[in-house]
Sequence to fold (146 residues):
Amino acid sequence: MYANDGFRELDRQECLRLLAKATVGRIVHTRQALPAVLPVNFSLDGEGSVVLRTSAASELARVVDGVVVAFEADEVDPAAHSGWSVVVTGRASIVTDPAQRARLARSGPRSWVASPQELFLRIEAELVTGRELVGGRTMYGVDLIP
Fold:
């Protein structure tokens, strides 16, 4: 990024504040040695951990437990040429503690497609990065929006 290219790097607190407003993001993991991206609904827990609720029989639950993954959420305003994107990178794990599962069942994300046996996946927020595009500004300071 250039100093005046219209992008602004976000600090961890700004990233978490924006993530708390979003309802849908994308989890990025490896599938057969290739990147796989899956849209998911989520919530934040604790110090910025991302929590997903999924079927216990899902492929996602099988392939990401104990693995480093990335999670991305964003918001874009095409008319104003502005928006933000936040990426959380960290190890994913199935929540096994009964007390935590009970708490997440009350306050965590709700499945959009219910399953008879669900579980919670937590992505520890080891690295949180983000950037914001301020609409219409370029590295030359030219306003692109009339």
Q: What stands out?
A: The chain has a mean pLDDT of 88.
